[in-house]
Each structure stands twice: as C-alpha cells, then as structure tokens.
Write a structure and sequence with these properties.
The complex is a heterodimer of chains A (395) and B (321). The longest helix of chain A is centred in the middle third of the chain and has 35 residues. Chain A is built from 16 helices and three strands. Helix content of chain A is 76%, strand content 3%. The model of chain A has no long low-confidence stretch (mean pLDDT 89). Chain A has a three-stranded antiparallel beta sheet. In chain A, helix 15 runs antiparallel to helix 16. In chain A, strand 1 and strand 2 form a beta hairpin. With 395 residues, chain A is mostly helical. Chain B has 321 residues and is of the alpha/beta class. Helices cover 45% and strands 16% of the residues of chain B. Chain B is built from 14 helices and ten strands. In chain B, the strands form three sheets. Chain B has a five-stranded mixed beta sheet. A three-stranded antiparallel beta sheet of chain B has the order 3-10-4, sandwiched between helices. Chain B has a two-stranded parallel sheet with strand order 1-2. In chain B, helix 2 packs across helix 12. Chain B is globular and about 65 Å long. Classes of the chains: A mainly alpha (395), B alpha/beta (321). Chains A and B meet through helix 7, helix 8, helix 10, helix 15 and helix 16 of A and helix 1, strand 2, helix 3 and helix 10 of B.
Chain lengths: 395, 321
C-alpha cells in the first residue's frame, strides 16, 4: 500500500511539472488574447505575455515557480500547499489582468470594442486544472485540501461579482442575455435530468432483462447500438413526423405540448442515448458477478428477491453508477441540440453565436456546459466511491 | 471513511442545487412602466429565426402586442427556418417574422419570376398560405434578398462594382471563389438566375456551398479570405457591410426574388385579436432597408442586445411612449 502511494506521488510530480510547462507555453502561444474593434471583426491576436503587459511576467513567474517547487525535495505537505496555490493563482492573475486590459481597450478605442481570450487563455485554465489536480495528491483529504482546490473558482466568482471582468467579451455577451440566461440554464438542466432519469429506469430494466433472459441480450444491445450511432439531428428529424402524428391523434399528448418540434423530440432522443451506457453497465456488472458469491448466498438460503436486493444489486451498483456518470456527461453536452429545434436551453446561445459568427456568444453557451459536465463527473464519482467503500475508484 | 465520502457526495449535490437555485431570478413581466389593461384571450407565442434580424423584429412584435394589452410569450431565437415554419403550422408558436420570397418554398411556384415583384410576391403567399391557416400581415418595404459582395481591395484591384463587371471578370478567366448557401446555389431563382441574367457560369470548383449557412459566416470567410474566398452571398439588410470593408455588387436587372420581412401569424390568433395588423403595420412600414441595416449592425457588429435595440427603435420613432 505504501509503495502504491509512493509511485502515485511520483506520478503526481511529473504531471504537475508538465502542467506548469503547459502554463508557460500557454503564456507564449501567439493567440492568447485578442483586442477586437467590435464584436465580429477580429483584431490582431497577441500572446498573453505581450497582451497583459507587466502581468505577463507575473503569470510566467507563477508557472515557473509551480514547476520548480513541484520538482523540489520539500515535504509533501509544503509542496502540495505551495504548488496548489501557485497553480490556482496563475489563472486568477490572467483573468484579473485580462479584465483590466479589456477595460483599457474600451477606454482607448470605443464602447463597441471587445476583448476576447483565445487559445492561450483557455490553455492556461486547463494547465491550472492539471497542476491543481496533481498537487492535491500530496495533501491529506480534508477541508483544507478542498479550500485550496476550489480557491481559484471562488476567486473568479469574486472577480466577476466585483465587475473586474465585466468588459471581457464573454461577460458582455452574458450581460446582453442576462434576462434569459438563467431560464435557458434551467431548461438545459431539465433536459439533462429528464433524459437521464428516463435513461436510468429504462437502462436498468433493459440490462436486467438481458441478464435474466440471455437469449434477448443480442436483440437488446443490437437495438441500443444502432440508436447510439444515429446522428442526433437526423434522429430528431426522424422523430418529427412520428411525434407530430401522435399529437394529432391524441388530444392529451397535444395538450402536454408533445409536438414534432420543441422539448418532446429532444427528450426522446437524449433518453435514447442515455439508455446505452446504463444498460450496458447493468448487464455487465450483474452478469460478471463471481459465481462463488452467488452460491454462498444461495447456501445461506436466500431467495431470488433477497439475493438480488442484498447481494447482486449492492455489488453491481458502483458499476451502474459509473454508467450513469457517462450518461450524465454525455447528455449535458448533447442537450445543446435543443437550441436548433425550438427547445431552447444553452444551445440557443451556441447556435445564435454561430449564426452571427460571434465566438464569445458561443462560449457563453459552452462554458456552463463544460462546468456542468465537470461538476456532474466529480459529483457522481464521489457517489460511486461512497457506494464502493471496499476499494478506491481511480478517477 | 465511508461516511466521509457520502458526506462529500451530498455536499457536491447540495452545492449544485444551490448553484442552480441561485441562478433563478424573479420573472420580469413589466410592460416598461406603461399601465395597460390585459385583454382576455389567448397568449401569443412569438418565435423568430436564430439571427440578429429575427431577434430585433421578433422583439418589436412582442413589445407592440404587450403595450396593446395582448399577452405575448418570447420565443425568439426559436430555431432553423424549417423548424420555425413547422412549429407555426403545428400551432406550437403563434407568430414569427418571415420573408415574402420564402413563400416560393412553402407554397410554390418555386423559382417563378413573380417573386421578384414585391407586391405580387406578397399577394401570392398571403393568398396561398391562408389555406394553411396562416396570415401574412403588412410587410416592411425593405428587401432582404441575396446579393454578391466582394472586399473593397478586390473591387479596387479589378475595378468591379457591378454585376456586369463581375460577369466580364469571370468570363475573362478571373480567379473566383464564391461562398454561399447551397439551396440558393441550386434554386433557379438564386445564383442560376444571376448567371443567366448577366451571362456567366461558375464551375463547381469556384463555389463553396454550405447547407443552412448564414450570411454572417460567408462575410467572415470573405473578410478573412478563408480558403481563397473572394466573393460572398450577402443579404441586403446585413449590418455593417461597409464597416467591414465590403462592396455589394450593383444588380441593375433586379434579379433576385424580393424578401420583404413581414409579421406572420396563425389566423386563429388574428381572429382573436383582429387589431394586430393595424398595430404592427406602421412599425413594419417604417422599417426601410437602411434602417434594418443600421439595427442589424448595432446587434451583430456593435454587440448591443437585440431586445434593447428594438425597444429603443420603437421609442425613438414614437411607437412607444
């Protein structure tokens, strides 16, 4: 056990140094920050290092220090705290100074000028994620580790609330859409929740069916496989006449708002996609349970129901939850398609941005989707670990 | 240990819930400080296409209905043209902004010269769509049809400002890469009509056709010279063409169909509120091509919010107090 922990710590070192190196590269990538004359015309792109003035030096210094400290022979605790802090400070410095540069750009030119972060900026955020992820491996679990990990997120929220970032292009897009943003976000979440809930119930049922009636297994997974490879938009297009027909025939469905466009095809299609990972994991986890365990249970005189409830389900649950995790992340990204077919959600910003070639409006839709996907991923992973106390699930 | 993990999972779940709940905000149902009596009758769901002009014109319709006491629901940015049309026919939405020239795709006759006449085009779609329970109200005098645009540098270098000059340039073997909508390139009333009228033909290699493309994308490709693009399909009311250094080639023969934006409602809604046409007619009548260009530019290029631009236009032109 100690050896495993030792190599884990060594690996964390390599990852942390690589992350810091990526941060330095991000600062010098030619497209770091762009000062545009207006919303659609692209200005001259600059690297973060040149674009942020003196703060470019601070950014590079933070990454260099993070890399050097990660390589140093200091104690794990000190290293962990220092590298996590530096890895978190770098993106905050970048955002803070980019916000200031954006304000200066507007004051120097005109109110329609826009300042956008580009590749280098997003790479910086990713580098921070890598460094913090690696460096926290040196820290014992607890409130302190949690605080250090999420400090940059908290700092960003503070910067946003204080208005420091309000001239950054993506925040300007938010302000233009502030009246509908919350509603679209809720709608997006409703699609995810609805589709995954349907997918969970259907998936577990189909998985169990395939286990209990092995002859049906090829039919079940054959169908699900076909559904899985269907392109989303084509799928929605195919649902259109089906759902229109249903709503014409049934007053009840029509009153519920089931039509060829809008929320109904979105939910149908997203649920169909969500079924597969859950059904597959349900089937695999129960089908591959150790025969000896089941024999022992039978030997104890357990009936079918008890065996399922007390042995099979608890043993299979972590794997089923892993399937749920895949379905959640996949649906969070997939729900974007609702924006094209009258269903609203965060996809509305993505597609309106695409039609206006306003990249920052696209980001206004994409950033929350990425944040939600990461949150769901971490959240369900925590649940998975809680359900599986006998071994540590690796991320 | 197990308890800790469960607690962590619960903490994440709680944090997520709070985050989502925190994003909620009270519904803004004001009528801009104007006291109006809400009339009895159905709510009117107003949709639009996913573009700047759709948002601006859709928002104008919504505001005008609201101040006249008609409950309106904002469904602007609803989706692609086919989705909006299907939703209107199915009654999922009650109104949208549509273009007279698009009528050729809804009811036909596709590619007929009648669509190039503003009055005939409007009368035709108005009459034919009535059978679908759809009412076309008074359109704007603007014509949002398709033209060809080049960059100022290209125009100066090759001395091209008109379609005649462009045709001569093509026929002399000049380098051309045109980007545009695939359906416009295929439609006999689209690019082929230009080719026929001015006597030139573009080969497959000289064209990049995008399915469900939008002019903002063509303009971007033209301005940035992506893949050697030097000519782009644009709409007459696209905002900021001059600011982006583009020249629209003059069409002396009035080739393309007329696309006049008009409020389009389900007849059932007009039956419930017969006054809607007279409420919206003066607003749409005031929207000339120049005004639409200016409004679209403020949204797409300057980045103002579409709703605010619509509100400001209605106020400064005396439609709202």
């Amino acid at each position: 056990m100690a050896e495993v922990a030792g190599t884990l710590r060594e690996r964390a070192k390599v990852v942390a140094i690589a992350g810091a190196a990526l941060g330095v590269v991000a600062a010098f990538v030619s497209h770091g920050i762009a000062f545009n004359p207006n919303r659609v015309v692209a200005g001259e792109p600059l690297s973060l290092f040149t674009g942020l003035g003196g703060w470019g030096w601070v950014l590079v210094a933070a990454w260099a220090a993070a890399g050097a400290l990660a390589a140093s022979p200091l104690s794990d605790r000190v290293r962990g705290v220092a590298v996590t802090l530096l890895g978190g400070a770098a993106p905050v410095v970048m955002l803070w100074s980019a916000g200031a540069a954006a304000q200066a750009h507007v004051e120097a030119t005109s109110s329609v000028a826009r300042t956008s972060l580009s590749a280098g900026g997003w790479m910086t955020l990713f580098a921070a994620y890598v460094v913090i992820f690696a460096a926290t491996a040196w820290l014992p679990p607890g409130a302190m580790r949690g605080l250090l990990t999420y400090a940059p997120v908290i700092a960003t929220v503070v910067l946003l609330a204080a208005g420091q970032l309000s001239e950054l292009a993506v925040v300007r897009e938010y302000r233009n859409n502030a009246d509908t943003f919350a509603a679209q976000l809720r709608l997006h979440l409703a699609y995810v929740a609805g589709a995954v809930a349907i997918g969970l119930v259907t998936g577990v049922a189909l998985g169990l069916l395939a286990v209990r009636r092995r002859a049906l297994e090829p039919a079940v997974f054959g169908t699900l496989n076909v559904l899985q490879v269907f392109p989303t938009l084509a799928f929605i297009g195919l649902m259109n006449p089906v759902l229109s027909g249903l709503s014409e025939r049934s007053e009840l469905l029509a009153d519920l708002g089931v039509h060829g466009v809008g929320w109904a095809p979105v939910i149908v299609v997203l649920s169909a996609y969500a079924v597969y990972p859950i059904a597959r994991n349900t089937y695999t986890s129960i089908a591959s349970l150790d025969g000896a365990v089941l024999d022992a249970a039978r030997g104890m005189g357990m009936g079918r129901m008890r065996m399922f409830g007390e042995v099979e389900l608890p043993l299979a649950l972590p794997v089923i939850v892993a399937g749920l995790r895949v379905a959640l992340v996949q649906t969070t990204a997939g729900a974007i398609v609702a924006g094209l077919v009258g269903g609203g959600g965060l996809g509305t910003f993505v597609f309106l941005g695409a039609s206006e070639t306003a990249n920052d409006l696209i980001l206004l839709g994409v950033i929350p989707i990425v944040a939600l996907a990461l949150t769901f991923d971490r959240g369900v992973l925590a649940l998975q670990r809680a359900l599986q106390p006998w071994e540590r699930v690796s991320a | 240990m197990r308890k800790n993990r469960l607690r962590a999972a619960l903490a994440v779940a709680l944090a997520t819930t709070l985050l989502i709940a925190g994003c909620g905000q009270p519904e803004d149902k004001t009528t801009g400080g104007i006291e109006v009596e809400i009339k009895d009758g159905p709510e009117v769901k107003v949709a639009s296409l996913l573009d700047s002009e759709g948002v601006v014109l859709g928002s104008m319709i919504i505001r005008m209905l609201e101040v006249n006491g008609i409950k309106a629901v904002d469904k602007t940015k609803f989706g692609t043209p086919d989705v909006v049309r299907k939703a209107l026919l199915a009654g999922d939405v009650d109104a949208t902004v549509d273009y007279t020239g698009s009528g050729q795709y809804y009811t036909g006759p596709e590619g007929d010269p009648l669509w190039s006449d503003p009055a005939k085009g409007y009368e035709t779609i108005k009459e034919k769509d009535a059978a679908n329970g759809v009412a076309w109200l008074t359109p704007s005098p603007a014509n949002n049809s398709e033209y060809l645009a080049v960059t100022r540098a290209f125009s100066d270098a090759n001395k091209i400002t008109t379609m005649e000059e462009f045709a001569a340039y093509v026929n002399e073997g000049g380098e051309v890469k045109l980007i545009g909508d695939q359906s416009w390139m295929d439609n006999p009333a689209g690019l082929p009509a230009y080719e026929k009228a001015y006597g030139f033909t573009l080969t497959g290699k000289q064209k990049i056709g995008l399915s469900s493309g939008v002019t903002a994308q063509f303009i971007k490709a033209l301005v940035e010279g992506t893949d050697g693009v030097n000519v782009a399909e644009v709409y007459a009311t696209d905002g900021g063409l001059a600011e982006q250094g583009l020249v629209v080639l003059a069409d002396s023969k009035n080739v393309p169909p007329v696309y006049a934006p008009a409020p389009v409602f389900r007849q059932a809604v007009i039956d419930a509120y017969p006054e809607i046409d007279s409420i919206l007619a003066p607003v749409f009548a005031s929207l000339t091509m120049e005004k639409l260009q200016e409004l679209n530019k403020r949204v797409a290029v300057d980045g103002e919010a579409g709703k605010a631009v619509a509100e400001e236009y209605l106020k400064s032109n005396g439609f709202l107090k």
